[in-house]
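Re: the 425-residue chain
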Amino acid sequence: MNTRIILATALIGGAISAQGQDWRSWRGDPNGRGAAPKAQTVTKFSDDENLVWKTELPGPGNSTPIISGEKLIVTCGIDGKDAVVAYSLQGKELWRSVLGKETAGKGGNRNKGTGSNSSVVTDGRGIFAYFKSGRVAALTMGGKKVWELNLHEKYGEDTLWWDQGSSPVLAGGLLVVAVMQTEGNSYLVGLDKKTSKEVWKTERQFDVAPESGDSYTTPLVMTIDGQETIVTWGADHLTGHDPKSGKQIWFCGGFNPNRTKFWRVISSPAATDGIVALSYARGLQTGAIRAGGKGDISKTAWLWKNDEVGADAASPVAHDGKFFVLNDNGKKRGLITCLDAVTGKALWDQKLPKAPQIYYSSPLLAGDNLYIARVDGTIFCGTVTKDGLTNLTENKLEDNLYASLVAIGNKLYVRGRKNLYCFGK
């Protein structure tokens, strides 16, 4: 049995973690909720207080960590190459898999964008990574490369105006990657997890204004009408696809009726109770769609629109029939609004302490506590009540924060630009 077959066998047959509290994808679950209902971790922390461990990262990256079993896994650039690095939950580096040449962040965006913005995804048997370079790679849980391919070489160049940010997802037993761009090829592709073979590829091309087709969002994987569905947001449309074939089941428009230019989207959608919330209009508006149906559902699927609440980069939290939306820049930056998922009614809103810095990290709900990380290293934490946030704390790290936070059990994991942190009592 050759090495490739041995590694593929390990990828297929490795035991799934029994931990039951894994964070296996960017937002923790396929619905993109950004919530850890059972987590009960610290609300006050710093480089000195409640710090369990701190580890310097070997290179730049903004990907949110995932956790599977006893491993925490991130991507980053190392000496000009794409890389995946695994740590123990005690902060010790277990292995690093250094791949080919990276494509770094663009020009003046280099300080916030990198070649490693996308989070990896795992099924507990294998690890799947995607980089700005177009590289998609599969690794064993021990960090051995099984295969890699380059989407740009196979399907066409990257024409996004900024740095690719969509993370891969697992659906229909396949690895699915969404490439959504105004110029050039725009598509979803389903790859065999064991071999990288293309199982299907679906064009996702809509007629949009300049840059309005560029999307940096991550798809959701939902069960809708009893069917597993890939829900994808970008190019002024929300679409549902069959993960077995890639076929489009339904689509919803109405987000940009005037074909406004430059309405690229960064904030990913989130879902609760079959309702998908998403921000658009460069973060000025938020709407909700009842997912499901066949064909064009644009006239029937809309539940509500809110012209006062929105996020440009930060994705909403979805939990228990509610959405939590963070206004991440502009005059309203730092405003958190809790919305009823069905009606869109604002149940409460609250403004965080004012500062010139903006937010890129998506909020995290851990138990009853909402965590909001600002780019300057400030992390706010407040307990959610029916009237708003109480017991608000302001925690400061000497780092910059672009990745989203992760909470499991009594631990809070933070990926900064320079370091990885674990906080807990």
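The radius of gyration is 20 Å.
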